[in-house]
Amino acid sequence: MKETSLNSALESINIETKAVSDMLPAINSDAFKKAVEAITKCNRVITSASGTSGIAAKKLAHTLCCIERPAQFLPPCEALHGGLGSVQKGDVVILVSRGGKTGELLPILDVALKKGATVIGVTENMNSPIGADSHITLPLIIEKESDKYNMQATASFVATIALFDALICALIEETDYQKEQFALIHPGGAVGARLNNK
Question: Could you give all domains of the chain from N- to C-terminal order, each with its CATH number?
Answer without folding.
Answer: 3-182 (3.40.50.10490)
